[in-house]
Here is the input.
Amino acid sequence: MPPQGVLLVTGLPATGKTTVARALAYALAVPMLAKDGIKEPLLELLGAADMAASRRLSDASFAALFALAREQLAAVGAVVLEGNFRPGEHEPALRALLAHSACQCTQVLCRVAEPLRQARLKARGTDASRHPGHRDAEWVSAAGTAGDGFLQIEGPRFIHDGAMVEPVHGSALIRSLANRQLV
Here is the structure.
């Protein structure tokens, strides 16, 4: 049976979300949509002069992500969504997506120890391949753990240790989710 539903990978910045989301999408052979994959072209075109402007682009990126996810669910029945989804804020859009598509959501919350997350954010600030519009250096100075949690959505929940450098396709989490086929 092919995978069905939404696999949502969330967590604070620099917790390994993109890495694990890519591994899950590969293992499940389903499309992956990443919030930053939408936000970075918007940053290129529109810029973001400050944190408030960056947040507005994030909000627009999440809106586009949910719209694209709806199309992917209609086309192939499953999708991996990756981003720093905000508990208490993104549930209405996700519930609407799930209701429209008559599917379930499995959540993976990525976490790392705060000193490691801070070190990753600092390293990102000097990484030439990372878009400067993410303002990683500002995240370091304003770091906090607010928003580190699951969305209040029914369905299976898993916590992933994002300290794992490379979650290989055969890791326990990847195998578990692939074997359950998102149900």
